[in-house]
Amino acid sequence: MRVKPNIEPTHPDATQQTVESAPAAFARLRAENARLREQLALRDLALDGIQTTFEIADRTTPEPTIIYCNQSAAEMCGVPREQLIGLPISVISQHDVTVEFDLKSDHAKLAAGQKVAYESEVKRPDGTTFWRGITVVPIFDADGCLIRSIATGADITAKRESSRRQRELQGQLVAELKERERILSELQLSQKLEAVGRLAAGIAHEINTPIQYIGDCIHFLKSGFADTDQILHGWQGLVAALPSGVDADLLRSETADLCVKHELEFLQGEIPKAFQRMSDGVERVATIVRSMKEFAHPDSTEQGDADINHALLSTLNIASHVYKFVAQVQTKFEELPDVMCYMGALNQVFLNLIVNSAHAIEDAGRTVETGVIAIGTSREGENVVIRIRDNGCGIPTENLTKLYDPFFTTKQVGRGTGQGLAIARSIVVDKHGGDMRVSSTVGIGTEFMLTLPIGGLVRNGA
Questions:
Q1: Average pLDDT over residues 342-371
Q2: Rounded CA gap, 164 and 337, in Å?
Q3: For residue range 141-186, what is the model confidence (pLDDT) as tens digits?
Q4: For the chain, which residues make up each domain, given as ranges?
Q5: HSE-CB for 396 with a 13 A CA cutoff
Q6: Which whole number is the average pLDDT over 216-225?
Q7: So what's the pLDDT on residue 383?
Q8: Per CATH, is 302-462 categorized as 3.50.50.60?
Q9: Which spans in 364-396 are helix H?
Q10: 135 beta partners
């Protein structure tokens, strides 16, 4: 007997529920897909609306590939976004013109959980460039394996320019502070020199008067001795001409004894020489006093015509105590026109260079027989050129570029402050519109060449 199959559902509502749930499930799925598409579209709108470049790369492939990028990244590459998807990330990095990428190194850093950050200059498709700052972060799966990386980049051109300008302004500020320090130092030294100059001028004036008295007295004594010597010669002649006799012979004998006793012959020969030496000494003092008065004369606020050769000779007289025991001075002065200049300031330059030469010769271990300071002048076109050369110890090459830096000195304490050459260059270049150059060889010597315009510095509006 056949049994009629039971085709009734075990649970009366099961089939109905299955049939009814399928449409609902599809509806829910469509709704979720719609929401997901909406969210993705919103994400694209948000990421496309920013200037920052945004790329997601797949790190599980042999060469990382792009799986997402925003519109800014696509525009930077000049390629539609759809064409970038699936391409290696090198298509983005190839637009960087200042950074060479090491993908293996970057991948290793990301795999170790590190961020990769750099700045590079990017070239747009139209040829223009901008600076981009990039930060790449890693994404790991549940097992800790690197699977993705996210790179965000921003245009930092304005930021870099702002930083550059800030550095530039800081540099200008530092330069201005150094210049202010230099000017202050120069002003302080100038004020000190001015005070010393006034004192020296006063001392020179005070010395000049007694020196004139001494010179006049020496001249009087020299003339008086010449007359006295004539009287002695006449008296000796008279004594010798007396008629022979006991009294005359005794007088001649006593006279001869007195001449021997008091060394009359020696005195008659040496006293004129002593007068000459005294006259030479007084003249030397008078020359130094005149040079000191000229050298220490308060500097005028305006330029004036001056004889450069005469100024150099005056300065040599002033500085003789520095070089006379260590070097000979050789001069070769050509005939020069008067130069429009601040003579007091130039005297300061000449003195500084001559003293420096003497010190260099002394440091080289030379003596007055072997040490030489050579000073020459010449005219070259509308300029006067002064050369001051020595055969001293020379200047090392690494120090030549620092010679004119304020407070730079290689001299021992008490022998130099490092301001002399800085001020000298300022006087020649800034104050006179001239030029100051140096050439030196260690162990051979140094030469400074000063160039001064004959007509002086012409200022705007002058």
A1: 89
A2: 50
A3: 988 999 999 998 888 888 888 888 998 999 888 888 888 877 776 6
A4: 14-39, 49-155, 176-298, 302-462
A5: 5
A6: 82
A7: 95
A8: no
A9: none
A10: 117, 152
